[in-house]
Input
Amino acid sequence: MGFIFPAQDQPVVEIAGGGDRFPVHRIYCVGQNYARHVAEMGGDVKLSSPVFFSKPADAVVPGGGAIKYPTATSNLHHEVELVVGLAKGGIDIEASRALNHVFGYAVGVDLTRRDLQGLAKKGGKPWDTAKGFDNSAPIGALVPVGECGHRASGKIQLSVNGQRRQEGQLQDMIWPVAEIISALSALFELKPGDLIFTGTPEGVGALKRGDNIEAAIEGLAGLSFSII
Ligand code: MN
Output
């Protein structure tokens, strides 16, 4: 049996050093994972579990490049984040074993229609249109754990047109990677190919057409893209 129209291409992420690519299954995201970012958004830092939302797998923009300013917003924001790529899935994964499921790490940017997110928050509505739009997940090459080790500390930063906008430390994450994987796996069966955006430090802000963005995390391949 064939398909009634051609199946979509498999979304992929590049792997540092070239060669094989990482097929993306789902994109999960953590919100409110750095206290000073929660504060700048006017939120409550004392959460009993991580805040999760998701983006469609085909929102990835592997390697960055030129990204069109999205429709339906006049306040597109950048959020630089550590991204975890899973090589192994599971349900109810214990935090103490969760890092064994990691393939590698990458730098990603959770592009956000902040105006729509503000309306959603105010109205108690879902975040999908604010977070899960086309091309909302530019991501650099995944560096395998064997090369970069587990990224529990180190600087995370983002510059726009050469000016530093965001700078934080991975060790300031409220929910570390192992606890994020464990909590997610209690809600969803995780699969190889899942990506997890782990939240952003403070300094989020607006992007406009013509901006050049550089995102970096110590020990990982950098990510650059422009908004056109
Ligand atoms: Mn985010």
Observations:
- The chain has a mean pLDDT of 96.
